[in-house]
Amino acid sequence: MLNSEQFSQNPNLYIFLPLYYTLWEDFNLSKSDIEVMNRLVDSQSWLKDEESDLLKEYLNPNQKPSAQELKNWRNHIQFIKPQNLKNLTTLGLELVKTHQNGHDFKITESDKEAFEIAEKELGLIFNEAAYRFQDGHSTITSKQESKSSFDPKLMQEILDGSKMELIQKVKDTLSKPEFDYHQHENISDQREQVLEWCKILAKEGYGSWAFPRDYGGRGDMEGYFTIMETLSYHDLSLVIKFGVQFGLWGMSVYFLGTEKHHQKYLKDIGSLELPGCFAMTETNHGSNVRGLETTATYNHQDKTFTIHTPHEKARKEYIGNAALHGQKATVFAKLIIDGEDYGVNTFVVPLRNKEGELHPGVEIEDCGHKMGLNGVDNGLIAFNKVIIPKEDMLDKFASVDEDGNFKSTISSDNKRFFTMLGTLVGGRIGIPRSGLSAAKSGLTIAIRYANQRKQFGPEGGGEVPILNYRMHQRRLMPLLAKSYALHFALKYLTNRFLTKSEEEGQEIEALAAGMKAYGTWFTTTALQECREACGGKGYLSENRIDDLKNDTDVYTTFEGDNTVLMQLVAKSRLTEFKKEMGDMNVTTIFNYLTKQAKTTFSEKNPIIVRSTDEKHLLDFEFHLNAFKYRERAIVASAGQRIKRLVDEGMDSFDAVNVAQHHLVNVGQSYIERKVLEQFQLAVETTQNEACKNSLKQLCSLYALHTIEQNKGWYLEQGYLEGVKTKAIRKMVNQLCWETRQDAKGLTDAFGIPDNLLSAPIAFLD
Amino acid sequence: MLNSEQFSQNPNLYIFLPLYYTLWEDFNLSKSDIEVMNRLVDSQSWLKDEESDLLKEYLNPNQKPSAQELKNWRNHIQFIKPQNLKNLTTLGLELVKTHQNGHDFKITESDKEAFEIAEKELGLIFNEAAYRFQDGHSTITSKQESKSSFDPKLMQEILDGSKMELIQKVKDTLSKPEFDYHQHENISDQREQVLEWCKILAKEGYGSWAFPRDYGGRGDMEGYFTIMETLSYHDLSLVIKFGVQFGLWGMSVYFLGTEKHHQKYLKDIGSLELPGCFAMTETNHGSNVRGLETTATYNHQDKTFTIHTPHEKARKEYIGNAALHGQKATVFAKLIIDGEDYGVNTFVVPLRNKEGELHPGVEIEDCGHKMGLNGVDNGLIAFNKVIIPKEDMLDKFASVDEDGNFKSTISSDNKRFFTMLGTLVGGRIGIPRSGLSAAKSGLTIAIRYANQRKQFGPEGGGEVPILNYRMHQRRLMPLLAKSYALHFALKYLTNRFLTKSEEEGQEIEALAAGMKAYGTWFTTTALQECREACGGKGYLSENRIDDLKNDTDVYTTFEGDNTVLMQLVAKSRLTEFKKEMGDMNVTTIFNYLTKQAKTTFSEKNPIIVRSTDEKHLLDFEFHLNAFKYRERAIVASAGQRIKRLVDEGMDSFDAVNVAQHHLVNVGQSYIERKVLEQFQLAVETTQNEACKNSLKQLCSLYALHTIEQNKGWYLEQGYLEGVKTKAIRKMVNQLCWETRQDAKGLTDAFGIPDNLLSAPIAFLD
User: Fold this and answer.
1) Interface of B with A in 362-391 (CB under 8 A)
2) In Å, how far is A182's CA from the nearest CA of chain B?
3) Beta strand pairing call for A295-299 and A304-308
4) ipTM score of the complex?
5) In chain A, what residues touch B711 (CB-CB under 8 Å)?
6) Which of B628, B621, B618 has the alpha carbon at shortest distance from B732?
7) What's the pLDDT tens digit per position in B196-211?
């Protein structure tokens, strides 16, 4: 075409060239495409017949340009370095101008319009087709980049708070060469490595941190959680091995035992002289631990207990430290005196001696390879009539007196059992805090990678960091916001736990159960998303998301299965609710709701449910009211529903089962409200303006994204109307876009040392 | 209390015993609880003063019963084997009757009412508190069990269809002792094992199944997919190694090469004499493969190509078979002739000889340990000016002629490249089919376990299989339904692919891209849920969910990142839409929608959007219309939105980015409609009534659960109202409950041999 006589005689024909190039380069020319083009050619009054013929000829599939010819066309267009890329018609006109020595093509308006109509009919309504002829085409998307609006060091101070020094100390320890990561040859090596690491930590005093000073500790329980959390930037097997030894084994002796046990054991536990286990779960009883079957039968004659496993499915299972290293264990067993069952109590039982030889009557089976945490030696334990002295009953809450009578300040077996479990609630704080650290590592890796990794870009422009893509922001920014939300909420939970009065016990237990479930589900979700967001690189173990994900995967089911825990939270909420409601009917419920959430009902007015005003959408009060409304409405409707079913004659167990899915939402909505409250409080108490603004944005993102996830429910209730949920979706997109600029700074503020992060993809620059 | 003078004198006092027991056993007696009880005592006209005093005394925390006393109360109540367990008051009356030698207690109505009010005020509105005194308390929940409504063998025949025989043959092969699972010592062992397995499969002819008979094959491409799918009940590393060798390497030679390549290579590929690789992805170009940087420069003088890696980030990465076994590779590289770039073409390039020595100029790095698929030796390949003869260019679509000129029937580099990729679309069929098999294994394991595993139960009753819990059903039943939906949809995709005409090419490519994304996301979600649903047992590698999950995790990002693929689908849908729309405005869009989906708009009438009629909710037409409406409304609004942004002056690249999240939904909703259509068709064509009914139920569950997941959107649109979405939620619960009974049969119908399933928790009975 370019070399034809016609083109050299009439340079105006160049107006067609960009269109023809695009047709042959991009289209599978259909019959209708050809018709459009034929109409266009026919419409142009200025064309001579032979010119029309030439143009139509070049639409004939049998006359198509060769690969070389197509390249020549393109080079020809690009050669003029076109500026006006509105569409292919304007580009064509520019081309004509060059060939006419700078004179404009005097085309009639209607002829020009025919070109633009043709472009539209061909579906070329955007300007992408034109951009490819320009070099260095830049766009808003291309230009977005990281520019932290605050000083990450200051943000880190806010996150670390009063424990900054201890956090740094732990990081320094972990940065010693002994803690370098390496691929393990096999499980045995890995387990030995993790034990060695634990010994170093014990030597540095971390193991006994929570124990009283008299037993070599610092009496700093908050510090213990901080250590767990900071260790979690390193190897998670180490964290769990550490937690089993000093948390589960140590704390069970500390909280369930008395002075004599503390004297006898605590120091050696803290120094790892005495590795031990926490043996509660049995094969047949995991969630329902009240049903444990191991027995501890009191022998009057010699004042001993016989610890016994009645059958294979009653073995203690998944017990950390059991397969290899544990020498003693806190064993949960039903106390039997004279044939009477006094419920589950706890006993210190020997497993093996210092040389590793099993105690007579103890049988151990290795749990073998696991999805993760293979540095922890989990095992099954069977006791075949193992005798222990009377004083090895952990007797803080119950004991057997000199005459062989059962004694307890808590008469009810159930209440005693749950009181004992209540003292161990710390595990449900340590786990989500550990999981959050793992999620922070994953997010830091994925966000740093996405900030550097480029892929695709505008036609004629360079490739763009994948974090500039809205979808990628949608995947990662809400998770980043939620990681901050959880950070403050878990800090709050820890404080409540450490300062709790007796009356607050049940509230804190429910809160811990719910936070554990909410937090660990977050960890699993976040790390799964990070894996996928890093593509093939995320699949390579060197980039650590593999271990982070697999090691923490069990967090959702240990220390209590999450769905069971959420029901536990729901039941505690329902109990509160039932107490207030007594005999439920519509009026009292309405009164209850209006009393408890005065503002929410007034909000359900026609103006507010439709409001899309930006200021309103970003208003903390709107967010919190929406969360509170949901929480209260769900608990009320769950209560009503169960009540109605029971009134209709359904067994209450069945009624609760019918509402089970509903109950999980009761727990979830309660926890979400608590989390948002703490995040908002953290924002409000932040002094530094820049940090405060960034946190405020994150907090809004957390709130609106959560509302968006529940928008079906809000719409069903009439609490929000479609116009508003759409505006919320748009606002979430906008917040993701804005947060993207702070994203790297926000992960820097986690303060995870590079050597612990380790993943090569986090350090592409 | 029991031994008091008062009780022996006035047996009517026994009416209080169940209430007192419950208070001391369950309550942390609060001030208000005590007030309630005091009021109750005061209200009873028949009580003597000293009796009232006794009762009040027993509310004093300083006078609380001992553990032993509490047990005595309980034993006392249980001893009478109470029948009337409506509440604690009726139980108390029954107790009195026993002590009064069968005479009823003549209590006044108002006194009795005071008891019942007190129970309510204490929050004891359900009968759980009473049930604990009865043995063998059974409930609807306790009684639910597996009872297949159809013959699983017949259902299996429906699923296996015409490939039943081949499926059985592959299962038989996999059931040979050579294929027994065992824990691998290390990666090297695992890789050797997988290679050995592949050799056995090759020997049995599976490797060349898809190749023409002339080259040792069966010419049965459908069979190839069936083999991949069936192998996926076994080790996934084996599947991928198999797929790399016979699918990627073999099919690339088959589809991109010509006769001479087939003759030279196919037979040896099929027999695994010639292990090879498919080397497309580079470190810097994964999703955006058009940007590959490896070059193949034509040398006129000796008619050869020089294959070269320009820099480290342009190395071929994640290439299966590269680290150890591959001898040759199909390499994607930009063809350069005389400095002109002719786009990406493919070449057969040597990597190492039969002895494993690397070819000169080839450098390989092992990708190392991965999250999963460690039986596959992925590697990085760098080419340092490796020379290959001209005839090793795979020249189906382009070639260099004797004079060194580029020749192609497809002039456009882009179009040629995408045509080449189009021939390889089979990978996007094999992967989701493999993933679906893995999900089926996981679901079979999780459902069988939940069917046997018991935990918790009603007060006074035995523990209940966890699959009887509604929440557990909610977690697993929709996934089971979706696995069936995908089964039929993937079968349909395979048929469309195998029988496609040239015009259908783009449609099938988009369909395959979308099905790959939809299917593999399902696999990841399903296996994550199965892991959690099996608790600690799910975390043990012996139960296989570990490997199933980790091996398939990469499926969401290989053969194309899922979010990128969904956008590809969306763009194909938008192109269709744009073509029809031309210049978009509200009227034409309305016309378009009404034309395309006549029924949907008429459905948006006030009666139907609120209909909660069961028959309507289970109506296939309602389901499909809802899916279609969503699909069309989303594509129209995405198109409008992008158009509006561009009209407002936004760069089209930015506009598409703004709508990216929206576009993923365009892809998703299209795929969902296609999947539902195929599932409904499968139901309608099923002959056996019992199977048909069960499939119909599953299909409704899939449809309604999908609508429920998108209910926020439907409510926003006014297509459904809250009353209807609530009814849908209820119906989903109901369908889960009903499906639970068929669940075991539905997993039996997958026909996964026990030895391949292997997980001990799948065989508790």
Assistant:
1) 367-372
2) 11
3) antiparallel
4) 0.94
5) 712, 715-716
6) B618
7) 999 999 999 999 999 9
